[in-house]
Design goal:
Strand content: under 5%
Number of domains: 2
Number of helices: 14
Number of strands: 0
Distance between the termini: 45 Å
Order of helices and strands: HHHHHHHHHHHHHH
Helix content: 55-70%
CATH class of the largest domain: Mainly Alpha
Structural class: mainly alpha
CATH architecture of the largest domain: Alpha Horseshoe
Radius of gyration: 18 Å
Shape: globular
CATH topology of the largest domain: Leucine-rich Repeat Variant
């Protein structure tokens, strides 16, 4: 199946009215078709994973085609140049998060990129650093605690970023690390307590929201049962 055939499949699921809802949630709809993620996944299930096809879909610039590209690409074929190029193209939080959770967290560069992207100023590239950490905390069951303990320093350093899409990703990463196991929960709670003392509205929000979940009875009960 070629690029144009796949675009036509996506267009069959297009609901122009959906673009209004997407825009309300802060999604860039300039080149969007109005296709839900569920329907993008439906199309994806009809196509074999293919690195070259994923690159072509990304290059169309169509929002849904790019999300589909993150689902169809082959992690072992992805190099750093591609990751950098795609990250620069991020113009919406959902595209950023889909790329990190569908593809980037499965590449051999997954634990390296957060350190590089956390230093970047572009809003969605910086968000990608913490979205990637969050997805690694969820998906990578084999990684040791030390890898995630080191990420806590990045989280603390970025907690003062007042930009909405960055602070939400920082919070997300902190919460996901703290839900991996009891030891990381204690480390994440300590980090949140340190962030809470910072003179920043973003930092105080990040800490308060994270502490609420990480100290919750539900999370504590689940961690103790492991």
């Amino acid at each position: 199946m070629n690029t144009q055939e796949i675009i036509k499949k996506l267009e069959k699921f297009s609901v122009p009215e959906n673009k209004e809802g997407m825009a309300r949630f802060g999604i860039n709809t300039e080149k969007a078709l109005g296709v839900s993620v569920a329907n993008i996944r439906k199309v994806g299930k009809t196509v074999k994973k293919d690195h070259e096809l994923a690159l072509k879909l990304w290059n169309t610039g169509i929002h849904e085609a790019r999300i589909l590209a993150t689902m169809l690409d082959e992690p072992d074929a992805v190099n750093e140049e591609q990751m950098e190029s795609w990250a620069k193209d991020f113009n919406s939080w959902d595209l950023c998060d889909q790329a990190c959770g569908n593809l980037f967290d499965k590449t051999r560069f997954a634990f390296k990129k957060p350190y590089e992207w956390a230093r970047r100023d572009e809003e969605f590239v910086k968000r990608a650093a913490f979205a990637l950490i969050a997805w690694l905390a969820v998906h990578d069951k084999k990684a040791g605690n030390k890898e995630f303990e080191r990420f806590l320093t990045l989280i603390k350093n970025a907690a003062g970023d007042e930009r909405n899409f960055v602070k939400k990703a920082v919070n997300w990463a902190l919460r996901q690390i703290g839900k991996r196991n009891p030891a990381l929960n204690k480390k994440a709670v300590k980090t949140a307590e340190e962030i809470q003392k910072m003179d920043s509205k973003a930092a105080k929000w990040i800490a308060k929201d994270a502490l609420k979940e990480l100290r919750s009875e539900a999370v504590q009960k689940r961690l103790k049962s492991r």
